[in-house]
């Protein structure tokens, strides 16, 4: 290594450690596990610095899965699943920057009902479709979590909402 290259290397190394620490520091992504007091796994996933990132799994104290999904900068991102303690899907839907957005599906196994809601900014905004035993039973419309319309006939729905298609 020439003297000139050595000086550049030392200068860059010193300036990197004193002036540009944030841009020059290298952080390591680590797989983390959290446990309940009884030793049962509570959560597991990736961390970058102290922020949850990438895919995470969360568990009930009995060991069954409670939820799973992606993080970006410690905020929920993308499609998430939430489960009952017995392991059946309770709800599922989209997050964007930690906020519920787009379509969410809520499952009620006891009544065999499925409700699909459109969300914007953590609130029901848009349409809801309610299914019973797999058949569409009614449609609803919401604005800021308040129901503003309901239809039990596809004909009436199309008449009131001619530009909407599912």
Characterization of this structure:
There is one protein chain. With 166 residues, the protein is α+β, with helices and mostly antiparallel strands. It has two domains: 26-105; 111-166, no CATH class. The protein is built from three helices and eleven strands. β1 (29-35) and β2 form a beta hairpin. Residues 5-23 have low confidence and may be disordered.
Main sheet makeup: 11 strands, antiparallel
Shape: elongated
Radius of gyration: 24 Å
Question: How many domains make up the coordinates?
Answer: 2
Total strands: 11
Query: Structural class, please?
Result: alpha+beta
List the secondary-structure elements in sequence, H or E: HHEEEEEEEEEEEH
Give average pLDDT, whole number.
87
Strand content: over 45%
Task: Output the keywords.
166 residues; alpha+beta; 2 domains; 16% helix
SSE layout and pairing:
Layout: H1 3-18, H2 21-24, E1 29-35, E2 41-48, E3 51-59, E4 65-72, E5 75-83, E6 89-96, E7 99-108, E8 113-120, E9 123-132, E10 135-143, E11 146-151, H3 154-160
Antiparallel strand pairs: 1-2, 2-3, 3-4, 4-5, 5-6, 6-7, 7-8, 8-9, 9-10, 10-11
């Amino acid at each position: 290594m020439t003297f000139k290259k050595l000086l550049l290397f030392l200068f860059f190394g010193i300036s990197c450690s004193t002036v540009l620490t944030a841009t020059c520091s290298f952080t390591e992504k680590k797989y983390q596990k959290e446990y309940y007091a009884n030793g049962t796994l509570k959560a597991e996933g990736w961390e970058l610095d102290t922020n949850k990132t990438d895919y995470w799994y969360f568990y009930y104290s009995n060991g069954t899965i409670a939820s799973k999904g992606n993080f970006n900068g410690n905020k929920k991102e993308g499609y998430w699943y939430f489960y009952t303690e017995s392991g059946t899907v309770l709800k599922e839907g989209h997050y964007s920057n930690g906020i519920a957005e787009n379509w969410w599906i809520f499952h009620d196994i006891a009544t065999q009902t499925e409700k699909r809601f459109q969300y914007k900014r953590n609130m029901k905004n848009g349409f809801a479709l309610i299914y019973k035993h797999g058949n569409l039973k009614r449609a609803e419309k919401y604005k800021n979590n308040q129901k503003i319309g309901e239809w039990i006939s596809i004909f009436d729905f199309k008449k009131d909402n001619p530009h909407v298609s599912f």
